[in-house]
Write a structure and sequence with these properties.
4-stranded parallel sheet, 3-stranded parallel sheet, alpha/beta, 15 strands, 329 residues, single chain
Length: 329
């Protein structure tokens, strides 16, 4: 999405794609292949994503790159039917199982949820109240977190499902204050997390707080403020990448975020396939070459690929003193 409620992700992802293109194919050529890059805008809506994909098919594409469950999941079956390799930056746990031509360039929500649940179990947070947005990624994240926490602690998850358009969480939070849990899992959409955190602080609720990756966003920092974010814990791909950050600075990229890096990696993967395979004749051949690709060469690492999933290292993050930093005891 380059516009709409998820535009922050789309714009950062586009930055990552463009950075990889400038790095690996600055003249839009690799070997005998001349590359043509076409962007679409889902505006954060599945129906629009599907329409953009149909427009995309008219160009006879050899690969599809997408970002966000809201855009990737509605077109996943169609890309499988068309035999087009689909490199998605999303955490949905069903992305790969629903499409043999899918390649996932974001930690599966199953891995993200497990790591967060492992932290919660270590901290003795057995009873968790979750607020989950009715959207693919938060729902998938909840399933993984719940399964792992119950497995680790025989704990309890009290979930409240809300719509992505909901912005007043105070009635639900007041109920939570009357029946306190060990932690609150703020498992909402990008535009909602900062608002709920601010309302939690306004209601003087001091329960430990967990969140999903959307907590990283500048939007949430601006909305909630440093005090409301203090102590919030979530999981994200590691950004300890010195050479990549230098590359981003060389091309004057404002901020090298996790979406920038993972989208950079997905574009680098497809460009590497073109570089190493000189006899590709269409999308199915590209997909087969991607399946043979066990790792992707990136500035700081050889990113491992296993069963079509990029194995990004994960870090546990926390907001402290108005800054996002690695969690440590």
């Amino acid at each position: 999405a380059l516009s709409g409620p998820f535009s922050q992700l789309g714009i950062e992802c586009r930055d990552g794609y463009e950075l990889a293109r400038k790095w690996r194919a600055p003249q839009n050529r690799i070997g005998r292949y001349r590359l043509n890059f076409i962007y679409g805008d889902s505006r954060g809506e599945g129906k629009i994503a599907a329409a953009e994909f149909q427009r995309f098919l008219l160009e006879k594409p050899w690969a599809l790159l997408s970002a966000g469950s809201y855009a990737a999941m509605p077109i996943n079956a169609a890309s499988a039917h068309a035999g087009i390799p689909h490199l998605g930056v999303l955490g949905h746990r069903d992305f790969l199982s629903g499409n043999p031509y899918a390649f996932q360039f974001w930690p599966s929500s199953e891995l993200e949820g497990r790591k967060l649940a492992h932290y919660a179990a270590q901290q003795g947070l057995r009873r968790v109240t979750a607020f989950t947005a009715a959207s693919e990624y938060p729902q998938s994240m909840l399933d993984s977190f719940r399964d792992e926490l119950i497995n680790k602690t025989s704990g309890e998850i009290i979930n409240h499902e809300v719509e992505l358009t909901d912005l007043d969480f105070r009635p639900l939070l007041l109920r939570t204050r009357k029946d306190p849990a060990d932690a609150i899992f703020v498992n909402l959409g990008l535009q909602q997390i900062g608002i709920m955190l601010r309302q939690i602080r306004e209601l003087n609720i001091n329960t430990p707080r967990l969140s999903n990756f959307w907590a990283y966003g500048r939007t949430n920092f601006d909305t909630a403020g440093a005090q409301a974010l203090e102590g919030l814990v979530f999981v994200m791909p590691s950004l300890n990448k010195q050479k990549f950050n230098e590359l981003a600075g060389l091309f004057r990229l404002a901020e090298a975020t996790a979406p920038v890096y993972t989208c950079f990696a997905s574009m680098a993967a497809i460009l590497e396939v073109f570089e190493k395979n000189t006899n590709l004749d269409g999308p199915r051949a590209v997909a087969q070459a991607l399946k043979r690709q066990n790792e992707v060469a990136l500035p700081d690492e050889q990113l491992k690929m296993e069963n079509r999933l990029a194995l990004f290292p994960l870090d546990l993050m926390v907001f402290r003193g108005g800054k996002l930093q690695l969690y440590s005891e």
